[in-house]
Design goal:
alpha/beta; Rossmann fold; N-(1-d-carboxylethyl)-l-norvaline Dehydrogenase, domain 2; 2 domains; eight-stranded mixed beta sheet; 13 helices; globular; L-gulonate 3-dehydrogenase activity; 6-PGluconate_DH-like_C_sf; NAD(P)-bd_dom_sf; NAD+ binding; CRYL1
Length: about 325
């Protein structure tokens, strides 16, 4: 069992999932939040989740659920949590000013060996870590929700992040059973969100132009592209659909360009846009209103867990 400390800042769905992953690898984990009741509630929820995972034989790591939970504690004292930590994972809201403030606080508490990581999903690390004493120890470690079932972690260093920190962060995530990818340079939105946003934009355009229903658009992904993408990415999918990528271009290149040139402008993604209201109306009509979402998330997580188990096999 490793004698290392890992910190989680602000406990939400992501923070709790991170905690379980690291405890599964044998790390001692300290949950931190400014509100004591949040810490207490998070610990109770984690204990319940670990027990259910063990019962369903989906628990990660070689330790029992009881042994993993024993590695997790909580505090509302940041200094107590961060002292001697080898790895800190910040999970505050996607707000640049809040992240700057948190990293300034962590900078004062970090040792020379502490990795300071952020769960940000879009902000490049240099925007909130520049000028810190320990800036070379800062990195983005962006998980995919829910990270316990979706193993990708996007590691994005700032231009000044040390190569050693990148490699140590990567090694820790591999040890926890995740699949880290490392960016060679900073870019807004990282990889998964840039790809996801391109897909979402075209989904809205298809609804806005009354080309397809919301249900049918989602079927295109879940019963079509998603089957292949669960096991290989779009580039390898293209590779296998022809005799190599040059041959794919010979077959489909002109079509790709012609269709791509018909894409409309980027949707505004404002809550009061007619297309957003129409998408929600269609979801409401098939029983996916706001009140039904918790049950649907549980269904999603159960199926993601089964898929993760299949891919391991």
């Amino acid at each position: 069992m490793l004698p290392s400390w890992v910190l989680w800042k602000i406990i939400g769905l992501i923070g709790k999932s991170w905690a379980m992953l690291f405890a599964g690898a044998g790390y001692r984990v300290v949950l931190y939040d400014t509100v004591e009741s949040q810490v207490t509630a998070a610990l109770a929820d984690i204990q319940q989740q670990l027990t259910k995972l063990e019962e369903s034989q989906l628990l990660k790591g070689s330790l029992s659920s009881q042994q993993q939970f024993a590695l997790i504690s909580g505090t509302n004292d940041l200094a107590e949590a961060a002292t001697d930590a080898i790895y800190v994972q910040e999970n505050v809201p996607e707000n640049l000013e809040i992240k700057k403030k948190v990293f300034q606080q962590l900078d004062e508490l970090a040792s020379e060996k502490t990795i300071l990581a952020s769960s940000t999903s879009c902000l490049v690390p240099s925007k909130f870590t520049a000028g810190l004493k320990h800036s070379s120890q800062c990195i983005v470690a962006h998980p995919i929700n829910p990270p316990y079932y979706v193993p990708l972690v996007e590691l994005m260093p700032a231009p000044y992040t040390s190569a050693d920190v990148v490699q140590r962060a990567k090694a820790i995530h591999i040890e926890c059973g995740q699949q880290p990818v490392v960016f060679r340079k900073e870019i807004e939105g990282f990889g998964i969100n840039r790809l996801q946003y391109a897909l979402l934009n075209e989904c809205l355009r298809l609804v806005q132009d009354d080309v397809m229903s919301v249900e049918d658009i989602d079927k295109v992904m879940s019963y079509g592209l998603g089957h292949r993408y669960a096991f290989m990415g779009p580039l390898q999918t293209a590779l296998l659909n022809a005799e190599g990528l040059p041959n794919y271009c010979d077959r489909y290149g002109e079509t790709i360009v012609r269709v791509s040139e018909t894409y409309g402008p980027t949707p505004t993604w404002k809550a009061d846009d007619p297309v957003i209201r129409e998408v929600q109306r269609q979801f409401d009509a098939v029983g996916l209103g706001v009140d039904q979402l918790p049950a649907r998330r549980a269904w999603r997580d159960e199926n993601l867990a089964r898929l993760a188990k299949l891919k391991q096999e």
